[in-house]
Amino acid sequence: PVRIFVDAPGASDKDYAKYQEILAKSYNKWFTGTADVIRSAKREQEFADIMPLLQKGVNVEFVDHASAADIWAHILPWSEVRWKCGPSAGGCYQRRKGEIPDLFLPKDHFVLKVLSSGQLGLSRVGLHEVGHSLGLSDQYDKAKDSTSHHRYSSAQSGKGVMSSLKKFSCDDADGIVNLIDLVRGVA
């Protein structure tokens, strides 16, 4: 399981439940979305070894204390997210040695969605930042100068969630398949 501690200061029980649902869906989308891409390409047989894992999805558990978590999700106003992540960021994933990794995500806000043409909001940014927590790098043009490995951060392969698009793509599925292969030690 992926154990998540959600820190959403001032959130109602309804909003807190919504944040948990969005985070769980975001983690699962990376696996079920990859399975969908494989099925739509009619390549199930080629990936038969990992299809059961992909179709199963991720067991997301929400914990009451940060000390029991694998990920600490901070749901904050956009101004605070920008302060934590940088002035042009909609959210970020931060991993510091010896500490629980952090996801900084914006609270959903109507004005924020309108001003960003739907690009910034908890669902959209959450899916992208969860991709980072799984080990995927940015795939948009500015990432060329980042600390990401050049193989996983090129403008040539920026057609999905890890780029600036909303839609889960073949590039995103390739990233998950490559990560699964790395973890399993399969070339």
Radius of gyration: 16 Å
Please give the largest β-sheet: 5 strands, mixed
Number of strands: 5
Task: Please report the distance between the alpha carbons of the first and last residues.
Answer: 25 Å
Q: Mean pLDDT score, rounded?
A: 84
The number of helical elements comes to 6
- pLDDT < 50 runs, ≥5 residues: none
Name the beta content range. 5-15%
Q: Could you state the order of secondary-structure elements as H and E?
A: EHHEEHEEHHH
Reconstruct the topology from this structure.
Elements: E1 2-7, H1 13-40, H2 51-56, E2 60-62, E3 71-76, H3 78-85, E4 92-94, E5 102-106, H4 110-115, H5 122-134, H6 170-184
Please tell me about this protein's structure.
It is globular, with a radius of gyration of 16 Å. Strands 2-1-3-5-4 form a five-stranded mixed beta sheet. The chain is α/β, with parallel strands linked by helices. It has helices at residues 13-40, 51-56, 78-85, 110-115, 122-134, 170-184; strands at residues 2-7, 60-62, 71-76, 92-94, 102-106. The chain is 41% helix and 12% strand.
